[in-house]
Amino acid sequence: METATSEKIPVWFDIDGTLLHTKAGHGAFRVALEEIYGWRDTLVEVRFAGNTDLRVLLDLAEKHGGCPRETRRKQESFFTRMAEHLDRGLHAESPELVPGAYELVHALQSRGDVSLGLLTGNARLCAMIKLRHVGLDIHFSEGAFGDQHHDRNHLARMAVELLAGSAGMNGGHAARKGLVIGDTTRDVRAAKEIGARCLAVATGSDGPYELKAAGAERVVTDLHPTPALLDWILAGEGHLGK
């Protein structure tokens, strides 16, 4: 018998550095920035890891003297154009899956007691395009995205509210049962913001020590769904095993 939605363990995945690696996003952002706003920028000073696309856009608007209201007015066009360039870039150079990511998503998706979602700094269109290029888009229909709010912690709260609304359950209870899987200290902080556990994968810019120091309950170097890792994920609320 399938587990009731309210009893499922919420698992929210980050994308870049957690599920996959790609260099196409920077180029797509840079080209769309010039096409929509007329701002030329190499983006070499921008830290995308753990950030949100909207936060990056707003920071660049300030750097280039852009009007905040005008920046906001054009942001939908910007993210749409960025997604178009991203799709072309990924056709030219496919993203690389993080070891074990595909297998872990499939292992969790096949269970009746897990609910998969996204908690990502990517704009929605870009997030789904990246996942489509590695065959994972069909497993994710809900989440919080980096064009909805500039603050990642706020996105974490949005993800909980979305789940609570769809499942008819208390948001705090959903978060305490839940797990955030990410690769940066910002992912860890977002998990702490909502009272969820964090599985940190040291495949991005932040190393195991930084991730552990930030408060991740478990740090791994890949996402292969070993029996021990699956047991830990499915233990749910209150399980702080290492």
What does it look like?
The chain has helices spanning 24-37, 53-63, 68-92, 101-109, 124-133, 152-167, 171-177, 185-194, 208-214, 227-235, and strands at residues 9-13, 20-21, 96-97, 114-119, 143-144, 179-182, 197-201, 218-220. The chain has 242 residues and is of the alpha/beta class. The chain folds into two domains: 5-22 and 95-235, Rossmann fold, CATH 3.40.50; 24-92. Helix 3 (68-92) packs parallel to helix 5 (124-133). The model is unreliable at 1-5 and 238-242 (pLDDT under 50).
Give the number of helices: 10
Radius of gyration: 18 Å
> Which class best fits the helix and strand makeup?
alpha/beta
Going by CATH, the architecture of the largest domain would be 3-Layer(aba) Sandwich
- Examine the coordinates and then state which fold CATH places here, giving the name of the CATH topology of the largest domain: Rossmann fold
Give the ordered list of helices and strands. EEHHHEHEHEHHEHEHEH
The strand line-up of the biggest sheet is 5-4-1-6-7-8
Average of pLDDT = 91
Shape summary: globular
Please tally the β strands and state the result. Answer: 8
